[in-house]
Amino acid sequence: MSTGTARDTGGEVAAYMERLGARARAAARAMAAAPTAAKDAALEAMAKAIEDQAARLAEANARDLEAGRARGLDAALLDRLELTPARIAAMAEGLRQIAALPDPVGEITDLRYRPSGIQVGRMRVPLGVIGIIYESRPNVTADAAGLCLKAGNAAILRGGSEAIHSNRAIAACIRAGLEAAGLPADAVQVVETTDRAAVGALLRMEGYVDVIVPRGGRGLIERVSRESRIPVIKHLDGVCHVYIDDRADPEKAVRVAYNAKTQRYGTCNTMETLLVAEGIAPEVLPELARRYREAGVELRGCPRTREILGEDVVVPATEEDWRTEYLAPVL
User: How many separate domains does the chain show?
Assistant: First the structure.
């Protein structure tokens, strides 16, 4: 009986995703022809809805955080999941920044004449329906919706189950913005189910979805790459490096390197490895080490770094450290 239930559940999820795909395809046709003014009006309306509903977003996010702590999510994942007042305001500001960008649709570049006298160029056109699969960070819902909308696309957004309440609340703001501007509400759809079968179904919807964009950890990226029948635009690990050249402004270099590591530990664009030219290392490393230690950052370094800073300050770096994404106060 359990096998039958699982099969029925999988069928329900597949049917649900099929409906999302059909609605997205219909909306994509309208979005491809949407005027710039309507798209920008929708983005502004979304931003205002997020501001107006900030308390509701915070309440929904609190439910996700409580559930995440109960599930034992680590500090880095909880940080990604959290929507602080500043992050909610940043979502609204991000949508307004997208609205201020030039409309890419219809832009023509690389015009040139062929020997026959015909003029040939490249015109930027919408992709169609974009499926975006991501983990933890609910603010991606607003960012992805805004970017897809501006470029004249429809989007199906599948966030992580740990952010389901936050994503639903943000989706309501997005839908309100689309409706206020007279654009199809189905232009951006957030997958409502947390069933993992929804991801598999989305990856097989080549009749409705034109491209898949995964954002998350190695496991997610590898699964999407392996299972998708649809073209995938992907990244892999976010092991970000910062290099300080021996001709760099030392004061500016220290500020940049310190901020790159300590602003947030749990994001994929956080610095994980610092490379310093030997000529400037004795000048910048002591000050950086002092700041990092005050911030509680554990330092792991090469023999020369340990010689400059002291073996009591820096532990030896292993070969594995140079390719590790810590998502933690470790450098």
Answer: 2
Rounded distance between C-alpha atoms, residue 84 and residue 205, angstroms = 35
Q: Which of 172, 206, 227 is the last residue of a domain?
A: 227
- Compute the distance between CA of residue 79 and CA of residue 305 in angstroms, rounded to an integer: 30
- Distances, alpha carbon 303 to alpha carbons 157, 160, 284, 300, 315, in Å: 46, 41, 17, 10, 9
Cα–Cα distance between 142 and 154 in angstroms, integer? 13
Domain boundaries, position 296: 240-323
Q: What amino acid is encoded at 76 in this protein?
A: A
Please indicate, yes or no, if residue 329 is contained in any of the structural domains.
no
**pLDDT tens, 2-54?**
222 333 466 899 999 999 999 999 999 999 999 999 999 999 999 999 999 99
Q: Using DSSP, how many helices (H) and how many strands (E) does the chain show?
A: 12, 10
Radius of gyration of the chain measured on its C-alpha atoms: 23
Half-sphere exposure at residue 12, Cβ-oriented, CA atoms within 13 angstroms: 11
153 contacts 129 by C-beta, under 8 angstroms: yes
